[in-house]
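This is your field. Have a critical look at both lines of this record:
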Amino acid sequence: MREIDLWNIHVKPALNFGTRLAWKIGTSTRAGIPDVIYRNNGEVAFIEMKNLKPPKRATTNITLGLSIEQRAHLREWGEDGKGHAFVLAAIGRTVRLFPWYVPNVIQRENLEDVTLISIPLEVCKIDLGKRIDQVLRT
């Protein structure tokens, strides 16, 4: 699945429901701007999306593939605790939300420890918005 399909089929329907509003950002004004800006109940978050093939071996590390510019933008927005920034990665049939400071290469044994949300792709449209809202309130 392409990243645009992840957005159109799974993420956009989940994050544009009720009081939630999300926009896909398509910009060339500044390198590294995250893919999505999300708002609900006064909380705003930037979300960088990644669509990754699952590793063939269960012991292989997960590489997110964030550029230096993407990491810098996420850090600028989330570092002081006044903004929210996340990496949303579809890894095979599982969607995971990571904090902005997640390492670019995640050791497999640490995957659950650095994951804020983990949901099956099949229920992403139903659960993703609610689950992100829970993270934003904590």
User: Anything to note?
Assistant: Residues 124-137 form the longest helix (14 residues).
